[in-house]
């Protein structure tokens, strides 16, 4: 009996010590520099947005935030790297779309709403652009060529197979019965450069990654995945996808969503501090200037609302990729326990789910 009581007392003391240590870590956090790991190469939209808010967060957290790039595997290299680190709040995953394609593409064993805490800060819209001297004057010219000669037109993407820019193009190709030769790059900057250098015929990434080249007359935009035209200051009109493919109205606007994520096991006190600094940074003048200059659209989503959004985005994308038979899809969403979008509202919240931080 004494041995049992001693063992029980020891276990109780150990539990209390671990609890106090965890609470102390959360209360004192942060005490040293933080590392943010961008899932794509330098210079693209994800990298630019991440570095802007990370820099603005430093003054609110009182420590340096070192941002590094770890592209590859459609973001899985960065995801795996951060997942291998301690859940102490000092390692951030800086990426896009809640990594909604990672599970169906077989690139992660983690589940977005269950293993990560998300903070969303912006949106971007999908765009197709060509060199200014391209023979394709309109998106109709491009689609006609792709329809007549499947796989003859080369299209670069600033993402791996199944990524958001590939997903947007898959929607258009499915609706128009066209097929392109897909060339994937580690980020929109490299995909855009490939088009500028004549390595491909058209680039599919974000308008924000094309806009400066459009303004400089080096690229000509063919279409943007929105419902209404966009007019630039010089009077240039950027045509919406619905002008050419009306059936895509239900998907517009469509594009990237920029997010920060940390491991869900990070102490709540640290999660709350990240949230406060993140919201303040995303509302800073520097961040607002970036949004206006590069055609990003600010949207702040945190807490339980971000959990739900992560699960919903995975549902929509997983079933879209599966139904369209997009190259590289590894798993049936049914086998992953991912509900169809039309049944999402009855599925959420899943059994055992509890938000870790508030949404306000």
Shape: globular
Main sheet: strand order: 2-1-3-12-4-13
CATH class term of the largest domain: Alpha Beta
Q: What proportion strand?
A: 15-25%
Biggest β-sheet: count, sense, barrel? 6 strands, mixed
Cα-based radius of gyration, to the nearest Å: 22 Å
What's the quick description here?
It is built from 12 helices and 13 strands.
Descriptive keywords:
12 helices; 2 domains; D-Maltodextrin-Binding Protein, domain 2; disordered N terminus; 13 strands; 360 residues; 6-stranded mixed β-sheet; alpha/beta
Structural summary, described in words:
Residues 3-8 and 10-25 have low confidence and may be disordered. This protein folds into two domains: 32-124 and 256-304 and 315-347, D-Maltodextrin-Binding Protein, domain 2, CATH 3.40.190.150; 126-251, D-Maltodextrin-Binding Protein, domain 2, CATH 3.40.190. The strands form three sheets. A six-stranded mixed sheet has the order 2-1-3-12-4-13, with helices on both faces. A five-stranded mixed sheet has the order 7-6-8-5-9, sandwiched between helices. Strand 10 and strand 11 form a beta hairpin. The relative contact order is 0.17. It starts with a helix and ends in a 13-residue tail after the last helix. The protein has 360 residues and is an alpha/beta fold. The protein is globular. The chain is built from twelve helices and 13 strands. Helix 1 (2-28) packs parallel to helix 9 and helix 2 crosses helix 9.
């Amino acid at each position: 009996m004494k041995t049992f009581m001693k063992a029980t007392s020891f276990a109780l003391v150990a539990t209390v010590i671990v609890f106090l240590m965890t609470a102390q870590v959360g209360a004192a956090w942060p005490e040293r520099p933080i590392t943010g790991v961008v899932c794509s190469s330098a210079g693209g939209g994800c990298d630019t947005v991440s570095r802007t808010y990370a820099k603005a967060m430093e003054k609110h957290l009182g420590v340096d935030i070192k941002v590094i790039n770890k592209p590859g595997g459609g973001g899985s290299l960065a995801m795996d790297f951060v997942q291998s680190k301690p859940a102490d709040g000092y390692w951030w995953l800086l990426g896009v779309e809640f990594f909604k394609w990672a599970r169906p593409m077989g690139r992660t064993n983690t589940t977005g709403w269950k293993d990560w805490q998300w903070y969303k800060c912006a949106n971007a819209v999908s765009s197709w652009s060509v060199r200014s001297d391209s023979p394709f004057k309109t998106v109709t010219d491009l689609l006609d060529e792709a329809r007549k000669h499947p796989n003859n037109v080369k299209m670069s993407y600033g993402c791996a197979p199944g990524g958001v820019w590939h997903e947007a193009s898959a929607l258009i190709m499915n609706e128009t019965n066209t097929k392109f030769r897909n060339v994937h790059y580690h980020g929109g900057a490299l995909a855009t450069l490939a088009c500028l250098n004549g390595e491909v015929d058209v680039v599919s990434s974000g308008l924000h990654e094309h806009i400066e080249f459009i303004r400089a007359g080096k690229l000509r935009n063919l279409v943007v995945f929105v419902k209404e035209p966009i007019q630039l200051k010089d009077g240039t009109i950027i045509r919406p996808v619905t002008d050419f493919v009306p059936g895509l109205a239900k998907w517009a606007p469509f594009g990237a969503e920029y997010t920060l994520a940390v491991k869900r096991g990070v102490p709540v006190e640290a999660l709350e501090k990240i949230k406060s600094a993140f919201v303040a940074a995303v509302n800073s003048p520097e961040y607002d200037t970036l949004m206006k200059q590069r055609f990003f659209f600010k949207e702040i989503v945190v807490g339980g609302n971000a959990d739900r959004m992560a699960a919903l985005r995975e549902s929509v994308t997983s079933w879209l990729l599966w139904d369209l038979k997009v190259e590289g899809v590894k798993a049936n969403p049914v086998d992953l326990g991912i509900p169809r979008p039309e049944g999402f509202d009855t599925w959420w919240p899943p059994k055992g789910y509890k938000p870790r931080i508030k949404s306000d």
